[in-house]
Amino acid sequence: MNLLGAAQIRALATALDLKPSKSLGQNFVIDSNVCTKIVRIAGVTSDDIALEIGPGLGSLTLALMNSAASVIAVEIDSRLATQLPITVAEHADEPEKLTVIHRDALTLQELPMQPTVLVANLPYNVSVPVLLHLLEKFPTIRTGVVMVQAEVADRLAGKPGTKEYGIPSVKAAWWAEVKAAGSISRSVFWPAPNVDSKLVSFTRRPTPGDEDLRKKTFAIIDGAFAQRRKMLRSALSSLYGSSRAAEAVLLRAGIDPTLRGEALEISSFCAIAHAEPDN
């Protein structure tokens, strides 16, 4: 197995007449050591079916194929989706382990295999929606490591009571425990991004309830953080019709109405959903 370096990545891009697209969040990893590190942090084993979103020119894909039983790579750019199997055939010992799907990850509803681990350099402009979508639609994904913009990583791994804690933190916690997993230098990308990057890891856990409860809980989360400096009774007033009605729901849930959303864990938001009048 030969992993891709900076010169090979640039040569592939030249051959494809590829100019990295800012709208698609295309910043390609050109340091094979970083790719190997990500796969190691993710704990990928020979029993895993790895899902990769936005494989680009294949640097992380090849590192994954060194460890996983098989790799499903989902790529929105048709040129890259077409080139990836060719690149893998030239560099990998077992190219048949790769399945490439040309599609927008946000539209995925099913896959040809059941992935067990997610490892990806997620497009930074849609990283949170993509991660939440995959956690929702593919319950066989047990663990994963994703590379995202540093500020997004801090929000995903944020803890209650901190300025980073917000909608991404709470919604991700519905499905998984999310932790910070390290920083990545701008120098390992081509082109170098204008933002810093970090890794976050996650481990799936049982959800607090069914899909109906999730939808109610997520609506409450959205309301609570829409104006995050407001007390909950005020922040949720539009959801329940008035501050008084919101306060009644909060009290039934055992939640102090003068708290702000940033003080609550996912379990408390679920308690509010359970306390809604139609329950």
From TrEMBL:
Matching Gene3D superfamilies: Ribosomal RNA adenine dimethylase-like, domain 2, Vaccinia Virus protein VP39
GO annotations of cellular component type: cytosol
Pfam family for this entry, one: RrnaAD
CDD domains: AdoMet_MTases (cd02440)
SMART domains hit by this protein: rADc
GO molecular-function term, one example from the UniProt record: rRNA (adenine-N6,N6-)-dimethyltransferase activity
InterPro entries, per the entry: KsgA/Erm, rRNA_Ade_diMease-like_C, rRNA_Ade_Mease_Trfase_CS, rRNA_Ade_methylase_Trfase_N, rRNA_adenine_dimethylase, SAM-dependent_MTases_sf
Domain Ribosomal RNA adenine methylase transferase N-terminal: 34-206
Keywords recorded for this protein, A-Z: Cytoplasm, Methyltransferase, RNA-binding, rRNA processing, S-adenosyl-L-methionine, Transferase
PROSITE patterns recorded: RRNA_A_DIMETH (PS01131), SAM_RNA_A_N6_MT (PS51689)
Protein known as: Unannotated protein
